[in-house]
């Protein structure tokens, strides 16, 4: 597990994600790859800057990605107004990423 958490988000792969999620079958590999791609994109969009702006890439990005992927994988339903009591993204997501974000005017 520690290898997974110390891997930069740019190097995360399906095998590391499956270790984190404790998935030992291949049926969901395509789904997990889509979730990894979406997590990378979501995080970069939230940051308002590319990963190349960081040297080294903070480990917090990996933790945020794994948190997102874990949430999406374990809660595949669509969130709506009726599901307000459930957070669509882990609360720690913003707490982890906000210190690295470039805030735009009006944020």
UniProtKB/TrEMBL annotation:
InterPro entries: Phage_gp6-like_head-tail, Phage_HK97_gp6-like. Transmembrane segments: none annotated. It holds the Pfam family Phage_connect_1. This is Phage gp6-like head-tail connector protein.
């Amino acid at each position: 597990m520690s290898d997974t958490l110390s891997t930069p988000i740019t190097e995360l792969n399906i095998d590391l994600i499956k270790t984190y999620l404790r998935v030992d079958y291949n049926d969901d590999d395509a789904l997990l790859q889509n979730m990894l791609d979406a997590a990378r994109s979501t995080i970069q969009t939230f940051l308002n800057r590319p990963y190349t702006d960081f040297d080294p890439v903070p480990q917090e990005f990996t933790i945020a990605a794994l948190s997102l992927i874990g949430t999406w994988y374990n809660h595949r339903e669509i969130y709506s107004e009726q599901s307000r009591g459930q957070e669509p993204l882990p609360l720690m997501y913003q707490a982890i990423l906000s210190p690295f974000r470039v805030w735009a005017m009006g944020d």
